[in-house]
Amino acid sequence: MRQASELIGLDANIRNAVRAVIVRDKAILMQKKWQQERGFWYTLPGGGQEVQESLTQALQRECEEEIGTSVVVDGLLAVADFYKQRRTEPPSSRHLIEFLFACSVPDDYRPGPGAHPDKHQIEVVWLPFAEFSQVELFPKSLEYDLQPVLQGEKPLYLGVID
């Protein structure tokens, strides 16, 4: 558990976020992002839950916006607390509760962005498990946090992820 001194600058509210874990042929569907100051990194599709929106409705909306397709939500895989660093003055972080859901896309789906891709999103790709250690994942612990989930251990509370 984080110490109070580490939480200084933490937003007072907690935001729910949903993520789609879409697995096919030993690869996970990921958003590839780029920013000049940071380079390339990969994230799961998903985002924040809106008021009066269920978690699965939020996941459907986010996937339509970011990966351009509807998904079948197969069930909750994991829940985690995540403290997202924000580029504010003074520096702050936001407390997110991340809900990771097993999902599937239509068999004929070809990776591509939706009508409202994420900021910095440049591509949607199938990232093979074998390449996880060779790229930057966000959050960084995703490679390790997903291992139990991918091996069928569910549901799982991941605790605080970095």
TrEMBL record:
Instruction: Please name the GO terms that the record assigns under molecular function.
Output: hydrolase activity
**Hydrolase among the record's keywords?**
yes
Domain Nudix hydrolase: where?
13-151
Entry's transmembrane regions: none
Q: Which Pfam families match?
A: NUDIX (PF00293)
Instruction: Fetch the InterPro entries from UniProt.
Output: NUDIX_hydrolase-like_dom_sf, NUDIX_hydrolase_dom
Query: Is the Hydrolase keyword given for this protein?
Result: yes
Named cofactor requirement(s): Mg(2+)
Q: Which UniProt keywords apply?
A: Hydrolase
Give the protein name, as stated in the record. Answer: Nudix hydrolase domain-containing protein
* Origin organism lineage: Bacteria, Pseudomonadati, Pseudomonadota, Gammaproteobacteria, Chromatiales
